[in-house]
Fold SMP domain-containing protein.
Amino acid sequence: MSQDQPERHQEVQTQQKEPIKYGDVFQVSGKLADKPVAPQDAGMMQAAETTVFGQTQKGGTAAAMQAAATINERAGLVSHDDLTVTGDQGVAVTATDVPGARVVTETIAGEVVRRYVEATPILQQEGGVGDLHQQGFITIGEALEAASRTTGNKPVERSDAAAIQAAEVRATGSNLVIPGGLAAQAQSAATLNASTREEDKVRLSEVLTDATVKLPADKVATREDAEGVLSAERRNNPNLTAHPAGVAAAIAAAANLNEKVV
């Protein structure tokens, strides 16, 4: 055991001969990629995130920089006061609000290291979600309407009802089932279909058509929404699977498109 320790110590030293650089942490290029992540760089990003969000973001850019800078400092490859990104080539965090969403962009030395969408519920008003259309984003309600067109002839099952309820919760920000709402209709349809002849079963299109109108609030579909809806659909399917063109698939497609917009 004691004979192995010097070898491990030597291996650690070998691994830390080079500092962790920005190119090791983020998808960046040019001069920035070859610069070591320094403690004061991480401090600047922490301050920028705190200014915009009120706190640093868990698992965000500042956290990744701090982790890398700490490793570099402990290895003696940078000092606590080192700063490699300065002046006009500093860090920046911006948040742009659009209807139903917040677009966050984080840059280091002028290069975008992270850009993502935070969805925010909006009350449905006369005129629908036209502003969102202009921005190019797709809402949860619109994704549900898309599902009604692509697989609307499918009878509503328990897994569909669970997925629709999860989607409604995320769109409205409320855990309460809305009387007469999408989730309530889907649950009733699934219960009825369980003891009804095939030709008399309620179809998805009957529940999801005009979903954007039926939802009291809506928001841009995100990857987190897609994962939540997928989990609900799978949990309530006897085979623990989701329909390839069902509710969860529609939310996932919308989320993927929304990420490309930014």
Summary: Residues 39-53 form the longest helix (15 residues).
